[in-house]
Q: What sequence folds into this?
């Protein structure tokens, strides 16, 4: 005779309740999957922003920015996250993707002014570049740069190789040495000298036809109304002034503003190697450094 199993009423209620919970959980997960889709970012050329900043992605839907999430990049250039769950409808209707640099912690839900990459969606993909109008709006292909070594802020002539000025002396009189596009809000230019492998700022500027925002290392004499610096006094740790810039490098970077880093940002549109046999008051050329520009793709599944 088959044994008949009798369950107490209370046990049946528990089993039924558990079954409902499992069904609800499965249904809820399925519902969430239907509401979201993955956005995948493949970006190379980004750098570690340090403890006080993060990268944040945004899709542009109906003209409005919608955050896709925040990530960091380590010292090797690896992103902490590359796949992001985004509302299915918003992602399907997105016309563009924009990558910004945001302060951390960040109390403002809107994007910052520091748009570094952007691209329009074509089907599932958006090619991300700095030249997109929603980013820097320029690829710097027409940028040019010239510089000289001189120390106009001191009366002596034995320290002339200790000053770097972004000017052109080809005509005998100082003229503008940099041809650079106007930057959008959130960005500024900064000049750099590389001394024994270590960068030191010559000052931040927005126009190449005027003085930059700093002359903290220059002497007490006058300086020309152009970006540049004499490395004469107030040497920071690790440097000795006066110095000899021969064999170093002259660099123009594009910096996020505000910027709290003492090092050049990854965008370095102009770079010039200073000859080891450099002569003062001779005009040297810089070259476009497109290899420093990040690129990438945003892919919606």
A:
């Amino acid at each position: 005779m088959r044994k008949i199993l009798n369950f107490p009423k209370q046990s049946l209620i528990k089993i039924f309740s558990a079954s409902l919970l499992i069904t609800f959980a499965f249904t809820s997960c399925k519902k969430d999957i239907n509401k979201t889709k993955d956005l995948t970012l493949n970006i190379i050329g980004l750098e570690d922003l340090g403890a006080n900043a993060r990268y944040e992605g945004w899709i542009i839907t109906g003209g409005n920015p919608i955050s896709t999430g925040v990530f960091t990049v380590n010292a090797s250039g690896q992103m902490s996250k590359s796949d992001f769950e985004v509302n299915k409808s918003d992602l399907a209707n997105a016309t563009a993707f924009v990558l910004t640099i945001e302060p951390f912690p960040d109390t403002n839900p809107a994007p910052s002014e520091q748009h570094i990459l952007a691209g329009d969606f074509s089907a599932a993909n958006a090619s991300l570049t700095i030249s997109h109008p929603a980013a820097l709006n320029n690829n710097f292909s027409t940028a040019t740069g010239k510089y000289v070594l001189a120390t106009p802020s001191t009366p002596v002539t034995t320290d002339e190789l200790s000053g770097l000025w972004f000017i052109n002396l080809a005509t005998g009189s100082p003229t503008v040495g940099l041809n650079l596009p106007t930057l959008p809000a959130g960005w500024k230019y900064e000049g750099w000298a590389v001394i024994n492998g270590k960068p030191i700022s010559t000052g931040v500027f927005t126009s190449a036809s005027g003085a930059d925002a700093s002359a903290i290392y220059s002497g007490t004499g006058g300086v020309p109304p152009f970006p540049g610096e004499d490395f004469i006094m107030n040497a920071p740790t690790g440097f000795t002034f006066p110095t000899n810039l021969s064999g170093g490098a002259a660099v123009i970077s594009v910096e996020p503003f505000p910027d709290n880093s003492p090092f050049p940002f990854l965008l370095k549109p102009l770079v010039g190697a200073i000859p080891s046999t450099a002569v003062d008051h001779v005009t040297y050329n810089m070259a476009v450094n497109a290899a420093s520009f990040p690129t990438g793709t945003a892919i919606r599944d």
